[in-house]
Design goal:
The structure is a single chain. With 358 residues, this protein is α+β, with helices and mostly antiparallel strands. The chain folds into two domains: 4-96; 117-281 and 288-355, Bira Bifunctional Protein, Domain 2 (BirA Bifunctional Protein, domain 2, 2-Layer Sandwich), CATH 3.30.930. The chain is 42% helix and 18% strand. It has twelve helices and ten strands. α5 crosses α10 (331-339) and α7 (188-196) packs across α9 (309-315). The structure holds 3,4-dihydroxyphenylalanine (DAH).
Length: 358
């Protein structure tokens, strides 16, 4: 067959017959697209035939050209139909395939979390006082100056009321007698509870407090537990008894304790409670070099004292009829001593490699 016209006619006829079969044999979209490229692509069969048409007489060229274009449309339509068929088959195979079981356990073990060491220590302290008969109460972190300072008998010029130590908060529309700040200690709970109830009462409260402090042992936000007991004839002996028992329950029954005189404006007399250093308890000569107690053998753990009559007066409790004691301690310090944590900031960075150790 040397006649190019006859060759093209035969080629078109052959293509018209074969293309369906070729598309049918393609069982994936990729195979189907490859088959289409073989027929219609730049180097495909039909393109090859169209190229040969240049040599034909014009009439024949037009006629065969129209046929070729018709065939091209037909092949394209069959291609689209087969494409849809394959997509449908894929979807149906998916529907009858064994289902994915979403209830299967994951492959990676998921580590179980636990409470933050500070929460654990804080709860433990509150629990010990709970066992000793104290109720728990709560106080706000944004507090009026009166509950944080004034009712607790801080003189107006006391250094702790200074702007250096406190974060003051703007209360819009409030006058100068309604100033507010982030509480600097949990002693605000004393002022609040004593202002709205009458003795007897034995209360503890834990929570966040804020000061303008920031170094290895001080954080601008930290935690305290405050406690107080008010009744008729409460004496310093009861303060000593309760707090000694607390220290022994927290640090062990053999723990030595001592009370040292100290000053806080809301108590008289005031004291600090020390416990024997837990890091150099053995008298083996290591004491002098102990960095935690600095060789003294004692660690200060809380402030305490007999509630000052001025505080009772400011809160509306009869200071002739009642006496009471109060105490306050820092939770971070207890946790740092217990676990030997050298830097307070570790407690707030929340690095799981650190928290995972408790
Ligand atoms: N509020 C004191 C402080 O933050 C701690 C304190 C000392 C509380 C003596 C008391 C107390 O209730 O009696 O440093």
């Amino acid at each position: 067959m040397s006649d190019p016209g006859a060759q093209i006619v035969a080629g078109l006829a052959s293509l018209g017959q074969r293309h369906r079969e070729e598309f049918k044999q393609a069982s994936t979209e990729q195979e189907l697209r490859a088959a289409k490229a073989r027929l219609l692509g730049k180097k495909g069969e039909l393109t090859g035939m169209l190229k040969q048409m240049g040599a034909l007489p014009p009439d024949l060229r037009r006629e065969l050209g129209e046929r070729a274009n018709g065939l091209k449309r037909e092949v394209e339509a069959h291609f689209e139909a087969r494409l849809a068929e394959l997509a449908l088959a894929l979807r149906q195979a998916d529907l009858v395939a064994p289902p994915v079981d979403l209830t299967l356990p994951g492959r990676l073990p998921v580590a179980r979390g636990h409470r933050h060491p500070l929460s654990q220590v804080c709860d433990e302290i509150l629990e010990i006082f709970g066992e000793l008969g104290f109720q728990t109460a709560w106080g706000p972190e944004v507090e009026f100056e009166s509950n944080n300072f004034t009712k607790l008998a801080f003189p107006p010029d006391h250094p702790a009321t200074d702007m250096q130590d406190s974060f003051w908060v703007d209360v819009r529309g409030a006058g100068p007698d309604l100033r507010a700040l982030l509480r600097t200690h949990t002693s605000n709970v004393q002022a609040r509870e004593m202002s709205h109830r009458q003795p007897p009462m034995a209360i503890v409260s834990g929570g966040r407090v804020y000061r303008r402090d920031d170094d290895v042992t001080h954080s601008p936000m930290f935690h305290q537990v405050e406690g107080f007991l008010v009744d008729e004839r409460v004496s310093f002996a009861q303060l000593k008894g309760v707090l000694t028992e607390f220290a022994r329950r927290l640090y062990g029954t053999e723990t030595p304790v001592r009370f040292r005189p100290s000053y806080f404006p809301f108590v008289e007399p005031g004291a600090e409670l020390d416990v024997g250093c837990v890091f150099c308890r053995l008298d083996d000569g290591s004491r002098e070099s102990c960095r935690v107690c600095k060789g003294t053998g004692w660690l200060e753990i809380l402030g305490c004292g007999m509630i000052h009559p001025r505080v009772f007066d400011a809160c509306g409790i009869d200071s002739e009829a009642f006496t009471g004691f109060a105490f306050g301690l820092g939770v971070e310090r207890v946790a740092m001593l217990r676990y030997g944590i050298p830097d307070i900031r570790l407690l707030f960075e929340n690095d799981p490699r650190f928290l995972g150790q408790f």
